[in-house]
């Protein structure tokens, strides 16, 4: 049976990444075929998860595909932001959490009280993609910025679009004399953590703040979630903000090319972010798959502002009533069909060796 997007998206029935009646910021194409042959379905029931809004568009495809083929199962994923998702997981109210930043040592220790039988939370890298810098500047479609200039803009120390620092990077652009309005996330966000990690690594003198899920820069205005930032950029001339590439493309928002020191500024694309993921190193131990990214890369064709969204789950000691469904759904996400779907909606699949390890960890969950 072929199920089309319009037929399966219904309020209250499936994953809802935006509330019913609001603007649809999904990165999905107009008609998506969710049918698959041979998808393994776990035990029927309901699975609760929450967290990263960066993966909301990917989760929309994954949930609808799984439910179209496993009709007696319901997956409810709330795109509440990484911070809130991790908190709910550590409170034991969800089966797994989506997070765009790594758990702290104290959070891993806290997870031992949620994961039974001596288990602990592990990071399962499931989806990656570029954090695009979107802007609203009529008459300017092509804009190049580097890390020091971005740091000064988002720290409210470069305040107008015709500032000499911006003009030097864009000699052929007709930059208007209008105020810059930088927007940042108001909620605890792994996207913020990754964006500020890039600023801190690539422009430490211009960005003195430590990377964090909570915004530490000076000034600017805030909005809730990636969709909130998209709305602010659309509504305000002179605005600039950071959000996942799928949101920029779906809403026709121009994005910055980043001067990394390579021979050419690097565009935010799936291919260029995949190049960054290929350079990542696994730094987790004891079955954990936490990755280390090189935010300060100068390699050709490597986009530096990339986030990896992890599914945070117990390696063992999962709730018996949801273990089978959790394992089946995560196995689909990490499988060839789940990963193949990512490139069609502006996300980057996880590289071969790493995703093979993810599949092994999911299969071993107990």
From TrEMBL:
Residues 44-336 form the PBP domain. Phosphate binds at residues 52-54, 82, 100, 189-191. NCBIfam families: 3a0107s03. PROSITE patterns: PROKAR_LIPOPROTEIN. GO terms for biological process: phosphate ion transmembrane transport. Residues 201-222 are annotated as: Disordered. Gene3D superfamilies: Periplasmic binding protein-like II (3.40.190.10). This is Phosphate-binding protein. GO terms for molecular function: phosphate ion binding.
